[in-house]
Every structure is written in structure tokens, then in C-alpha cells.
Amino acid sequence: MSKRERVIRMSVEQPLWRALTGYRVLTLLYAIGLFASAYDDYDRAGVALAYFAVLTVWTLATLPRVQSAAACTKRFLAVDLAVALTGIVLTPWVVTQGHIDRGGPTLPSIWTAGSVLAFALKGGWRWAAFASTPVAVANLVERGHPARDTVHSVVLVWVASIAIGYVVEVARASERTLARALEIEAATRERERLARDIHDGVLQVLAMVQRRGTVLGGDAAELGRLAGEQEVALRTLVSGGLVPLSRVSEDETQGAVVRLVEEPDDGGPVDLRALLARYAGSRVGLAEPGAPVELPPRAARELAAAVGAALDNVRRHAGDGARAWILVEDEPGEVVVTVRDDGPGIPEGRLAQAEGEGRLGVAQSIRGRLRDLGGSAELVSTPGQGTEVELKVPKVSPGKAER
């Protein structure tokens, strides 16, 4: 079955860039409105009009520059800050002294904060502190003395920009951590899937060769011994190490990007009864509903493979004379398959011991499969009374339910 690549993009800072874009446009309109409402306070209104024309063209033309960290270059930030500082410095030259004494706004007004916030989003709190300092100095020079309202405005911009810059740094670190966690989870799931496939095939054959070789003796005994050594080595390999399945990359326009390789779940539903029919025989009874038991293709295959793994355990541990029964129940929201045998049962603590030895029949071939499907596997065993394995699978996979 062909596999496909699923791309997960994570960026908690992208909404901040969109907010900054809107902030620059709105504060531009606000600054122009303040100028119009206090037009009589301007001695050189022509100079102010020329500055606002430049500010309008600059703001609208550079909107694409504040869409992402990649587009917001250092050169743009420098020019943008220079435009803001020029407006602050020009203010005493174009307004009346009364305007300054009353604490009137500078030409760019709060538009200046957008320039500082761009530094914060681009480079974090250090860049924010760097950009806030010349803005603070320019505001104090424009007023001529450290008035209370001026100091309050300067401190507010300085603290707010540094705080936002720090939040952006934390968000980026969190994105990298989450991307790495997703990478490890995907690799672990793939390792478990490979472990189940190997257990259902290669390890079973090696174990059979070892047993038969020991019984036959001679050269076959040596072959059985070698098969046993390879079985142990392969179990050790399967039990440890991760398969690097996913790849994490950094994209300044999208944030952290995780590429996961997954098996598609294409095609229509599959009748589970057809997959389980091959297990029925003289020593395995199958009880199933009269109507089709439909599941997504992958869920049906994995559930049937888990049933096969449970029957393999019956043959290996309960003896050739043991009987087993498969019961299929089609519930409204899930499918329940029960595998029961009349063997001697499993001694207490044996499952944990087997998992520690690298024997993954129950841990991976049964429980691992059901866990990946969003289902569950419950095993009940009483010494002398056989073993019962109950497998539950939801009819809608967790991924489709979220979508």
C-alpha cells in the first residue's frame, strides 16, 4: 500500500503578524484624524501634510512586509523606525508651542508603537528593547522636558514591546518542542507497527524453526540454534530504537513544520466477517452477525490481524488440543470481537515478564494495534479456565472524528 505525507504546520506567532498589519492601518487613520481635529495647532501644516502623505504611502506599500518574520527584513525595520523617528522629531517644528505644552500627540502618534512591535515579533525582546530606546529619546526631546504623560507613554511602549517580544520567543520554543514531540510520537508508532509485522511473520517462523530443529536433532538442531539466536537478536532490535519517520523543519512563513508519513485509509468499508472467516476451522469456532460488519479498510485489517495474533498465542501456549472461539458483535458505535480459548490460562505476571523479554505478541500485535485505532484490548485469564481477549474498535477513526 502506498504511503502519503501529511504536513502539519504550527505557528502561534502568525496571528500576531496579522494583528500588526491591522494595527498599522488603523493607527495611520487615527494619526490622520488627530491631525485633522487639531489643524489650527499647526504652524506649518504643509510640512505635516507632506509627512502624512509619505506615511500613508509607506504604510500601505509595506503591508506585505509585516505578514511574516521572513518578509520583515532588517532593512525594512530600520527604514520603518526611521520614518517613525522623523515624524516625532518634526513635530516641534510644525506645531505651536501651546500644542506641545498641552501634551498634544506627535505627528505619527501611536503609529510608532507598530514599528517597535515589528522589531519584537521579528527578533524577540532584545530587538524590542533596542527599538524602544531611540523612540523614548525622541519623545523626550520633542517635549523638551520629562513630563509625566510623556514618561508614562515611553515606559508603556517599552514594557509592552519587550513583553510581546518575550512571548514570541517562548512561543517559538514551544513550537519546536511540540514539533519534536510529534516527531517522536510518529516514529514510535511506526516502530510499533513494524514490530507487529515482524512479530506476525519473521519471529513466528524463527521460533518454529528453532522448535522443529530441536526435535529433529543433527544438523537441524544446529539450524534451530542459529534460528533461536537470530530470534533473540531481532526481538532486541525491535524492542529498542526509534525509526526516524517524521521530519521537523523551520519555516519563518509557517512556523514549525512537521512532515509525517502515514498510510492512507482509502476505499470503501470492508466486511470484517470476510477477513475473519479464514481463521475458522475444526478447532476455531466463529460466531458472527448475519449482516455485514463494515469498518474502514485499515481498521478492519488491523482488527483481523489482532485476532490472528490472539489465535497464534492460543496455538503456542494452550497446546495443539486447545479450542478457541471468535465472537463478533456489531454495536451501534463500535465493533467488539472476543477471542476465548479453553487452555490452561496465563500465570499471573507472565505478560509483564514476556514484554520485558522482548516478546511483543500481546503488547504490540494486539494492544498496540487497537490503541492506534482508538480502540482497546482487554485480556482476562484465569489459571485452569482459559483466556479471553476482548477487542473493541470504534466505527469512526479518531482522525476522521476530529475532522
From TrEMBL:
Gene3D superfamilies with a match to the protein in the record: 1.20.5.1930, Histidine kinase-like ATPase, C-terminal domain (3.30.565.10)
A GO molecular-function annotation: phosphorelay sensor kinase activity
An annotated GO cellular component: membrane
Pfam families linked to this entry: DUF5931, HATPase_c, HisKA_3
Transmembrane segments: 21-39, 45-64, 76-95, 150-168
Residue ranges of every copy of the Signal transduction histidine kinase subgroup 3 dimerisation and phosphoacceptor domain listed in the record: 190-220
Annotated keywords: Kinase, Membrane, Transferase, Transmembrane, Transmembrane helix, Two-component regulatory system
Region (Disordered): 376-403
Every Histidine kinase/HSP90-like ATPase domain range: 302-395
Boundaries of every DUF5931 domain copy: 5-179
Highest taxon above the source species: Bacteria
Protein name (database record): Histidine kinase
Organism: Streptomyces fuscichromogenes
